[in-house]
Amino acid sequence: MPWSNEACAPQLLSLHSRAHKPQLLKPTCLEPVLRNKRSHRDKKPAHRNKEWPPLAATRERPEGQITMSAAAMDAGNAATLSGSKEMSLEEPKKMTREDWRKKKELEEQRKLGNAPAEVDEEGKDINPHIPQYISSVPWYIDPSKRPTLKHQRPQPEKQKQFSSSGDWYKRGVKENSITTKYRKGACENCGAMTHKKKDCFERPRRVGAKFTGTNIAPDEHLQPQLMFDYDGKRDRWNGYNPEEHMKIVEEYAKVDLAKRTLKAQKLQEELASGKLVEQANSPKHQWGEEEPNSQTEKDHNSEDEDEDKYADDIDMPGQNFDSKRRITVRNLRIREDIAKYLRNLDPNSAYYDPKTRAMRENPYANAGKNPDEVSYAGDNFVRYTGDTISMAQTQLFAWEAYDKGSEVHLQADPTKLELLYKSFKVKKEDFKEQQKESILEKYGGQEHLDAPPAELLLAQTEDYVEYSRHGTVIKGQERAVASSKYEEDVKIHNHTHIWGSYWKEGRWGYKCCHSFFKFSYCTGEAGKETANSEECIINDTIGEESVKKPQTLMEMHQEKLKEEKKKKKKKRKHRKSSSESDDEEKKHEKLKKALNAEEARLLHVKEIMQIDERKRPYSSIYETREPTEEEMEAYRMKRQRPDDPMASFLGQ
């Protein structure tokens, strides 16, 4: 109950009058506050259950101030209570440890299925396994903190609005001029309300409808702005009117009615003429046999004719229709063949278009199969079969011929282009043949072109041969030894072994006598003994060093020429070194002159910069001559660099 300072005035006066006996009065208005204070003292201090700041502040104050702070506190409580009633929202209460434990136990029981799940405002169960950061409602969406998942669902204000499947543009709207009076805001030229004068498509009138008020044009029908989704844009039947099919149904009904009337009329005529009576009395009809030109056969033929009236317009595979007869031919598609869309059931494989019944890509592309091994590799093969490649070559020839000045075009004059292309190919082949013949006549080599192919030269057989692990032949024909270009099994000068059968110290010889000379005579075992003796080896080495081959006049002349060349090279090197030294001296002199000229130029520039700008001569430092290499080097050497920390020491 709210209380005021007036209610507590007597108690406060008595407190001040009895100042010599300090005691705390307990007015009736402070009883709920003090009771709340005792309950807070009894509880243990904790960070979750803290005392209210006004109560904590009253503990260390005098008695008079305690009563004043309590009164102020109750006034604040009254204000907050009245404000909370106006907002109709409860203040958030801190959950005790016991309540928090019960809440967690309830969540566990719900997850195990022992307790019923939470229900939202629509009566739907909330999955207890949903995490708290998903199921908890933000304060800015629903302050009431009710259990719901509405904030996780698509918000209706953010959803795009699409047109329904039944909405479509109106076609064939009749324009009837009904208005007879000009309306405000209409077109000043024709009087229609759907556009203005600047957008009018009618002929500009001499006097507009605004002033005449006659011949008011009808309002155009404004088509609605339809906004379809993904499926609506690709709906082939959107905008189709099923009532259009009723025209075909009515046509068939009229044809059927006409057939029945004609059939009834024919029966009446035959009954009147007596043909049906004669057929009924005939012996074949009594035995159940039909005559070749009987009425029943005619009826069947007429029915077939009626059925085949629209047969020419029907596109049915496997049927050959004629106006008089129907012949069923062999079906165009063998039923045992696999359909294109059943060859690979992977949705990421080749795309099958149901409207055109086409599958352009290879359905076995991702299966790792060779396109030549499979029975079907897609419809793209049509692009590279027939005259497709020749057509592309002809088009390329037409472009090249047009660039070179020939007036040819594939679509405009195909016959001329075809004849020109054929003559071009013949001339090109003749030119290549003439070029080939001229090269062979000049350089030769016709015998290499007439050689048999490599398949015949390196012939292979299919004879069965078994080999062991070491490569030896177990069964079958042994491997043929490759023939050498050198002579084989040729023994000369009484040698029992061929040349090259003996090897020693990097030299080839004969195994029979250990001789290292190819055209020597065989000495047998005696030659082996002499060759193996050390004295013979030493004598041979000394003899080889001492004996020199006599030189011919040609060899002596060649050595003399080599020595002369060496002398000339030495002279050239000497001249070159001397010329290089002379060039260096000249460059040094030029650089010295360029440095002096650069110093003079810098002094001249310094003098000009000291003169006033208005008194300087025009283009005083401008030169049209290109600087030489020495001048550029002098400029680089004399250039002042302000960023260089040693620039101030250059002049010293």
Automatic annotation (TrEMBL):
MF annotations from Gene Ontology: pre-mRNA 3'-splice site binding
Designated name of the protein: Pre-mRNA-splicing factor SLU7
GO terms, biological process: mRNA splicing, via spliceosome
Family of the protein in this entry: Belongs to the SLU7 family.
Lineage of the organism: Eukaryota, Metazoa, Chordata, Craniata, Vertebrata
Subunit structure: Associated with the spliceosome. Component of pre-catalytic, catalytic and post-catalytic spliceosomes. Associates with the spliceosome prior to recognition of the 3'-splice site for step II, probably during catalysis of step I.
Compositional bias of kind Basic and acidic residues: 87-111, 595-616, 623-644
Matches recorded under InterPro entries: Slu7_dom (IPR021715), Splicing_factor_SLU7 (IPR039974)
Gene source species: Eschrichtius robustus (California gray whale)
Compositional bias per record (Acidic residues), positions renumbered to this chain: 302-315
